[in-house]
Amino acid sequence: METKRDRKAWLAGGSAQCNLPPHKNKTPLRLVLLGAPGVGKGTQAEMLCDNLGTCHLSTGDIFRAAKALEPCQRTPALTAALEYMRRGDLVPDETVLALVTERIGCLHCEGGFLLDGFPRTVAQAEALNNLLEAEDLQLDAVLSYDLPIEQVVARLSGRRTCADCKAVFHIAARPPKTPEVCDHCNGKLYQREDDRPESIRVRMEAYERSTAPLADFYRRRNLLVSIPAEGSAEEIFQRTLDSLLVKA
Ligand code: AMP
Q1: Residues 78, 176: one domain?
Q2: E strand or H helix at 189, and its extent?
């Protein structure tokens, strides 16, 4: 099993450096994960990172890290972005693109990368294409996790996240050993503000409107790999590995 990267460069941006020694991945995978909030993308991302040594680049995590900062440490754009996030709305493309461009070094990670939550609109996908082209990098696959909407809502409302290491649990499907305590670091588990019912509805609408068309975008480029997201995290993970082998 590979060591997890600490993701300092991604979370803090600017000139922050990750602490881990360089990766030994001979053929780093560069992937995008798609799927409605709650399909279990975050869990699959963790499992892929643990097994393949890829770095988990989640734009949602950048915003959650910014939320922990003192207000005076946030840029005005980040403060505005957090307000969109609190409502469950998508943050404007320009803000997200500026944050990703600031972290361009992460796309060169020797372990490869797994973009989670970005791109979320066709405009972001086009911008990502341009960024990758300019950096002479190519995506290997876009994994799209598919699940009926009623199951998505059930998953989201039971989800709990570790305040410290960001590991994701579910009160029914993936409960922690001790209620409300993270299995990995003993951090406190909490329900994300945007996993509350009023935000879930807004997020699902935003997903249908802006993110679902991305599947077509990547299908046309022959990168899309559809993965049924029913069953346990381990079953979905096995399907993911099988699909990657087929694609390779
Ligand atoms: P996530 O953890 O990916 O579900 O993201 C949480 C929230 O952060 C979203 O509901 C959005 O408000 C915001 N967000 C994250 N990534 C993006 C993105 N690529 N484009 C727009 N908003 C984003």
Answers
A1: no
A2: strand 189-190
Strand pairing class (29-34; 112-116): parallel
Q: What is the pLDDT along the chain (248 residues), one digit of tens a residue?
A: 445 667 888 888 877 888 766 666 667 899 999 998 888 888 899 899 888 888 999 999 999 888 888 888 888 888 889 999 888 888 999 999 999 999 999 999 888 999 999 999 999 999 999 999 999 999 999 999 998 878 888 888 899 999 999 888 989 888 999 999 999 999 999 998 888 877 888 888 888 888 889 999 999 999 999 999 999 889 999 999 999 886 66
Count of domains for the chain: 2
Ligand 1 pocket (Cβ < 6 Å) reads 37, 58-60, 63, 84-85, 88-91, 96, 117-118, 120, 124, 194, 203
Please give the C-alpha separations between residue 73 and each of 68, 79, 111, 182, 207, in angstroms, as whole numbers: 10, 10, 30, 28, 30
CA of 192 to the centre of ligand 1 (A): 12
In the numeric block, the tokens 């995008």 are attached to 32
With respect to residue 244, please indicate whether it lies within any of the assigned structural domains: no
Residues 48 and 101 in one domain: yes
Q: Are residues 74 and 119 in the same domain?
A: yes
Taking CA atoms only, the protein residue closest to ligand 1 atom 19 is 118
Say yes or no: 134 and 219 in one domain.
Answer: yes
Taken in order 107, 113, 119, 123, the sign of the CA dihedral is positive
**100 within domain boundaries:** yes
Query: What is the spatial distance between Cα 18 and Cα 55, in angstroms, rounded to a whole number?
Result: 11
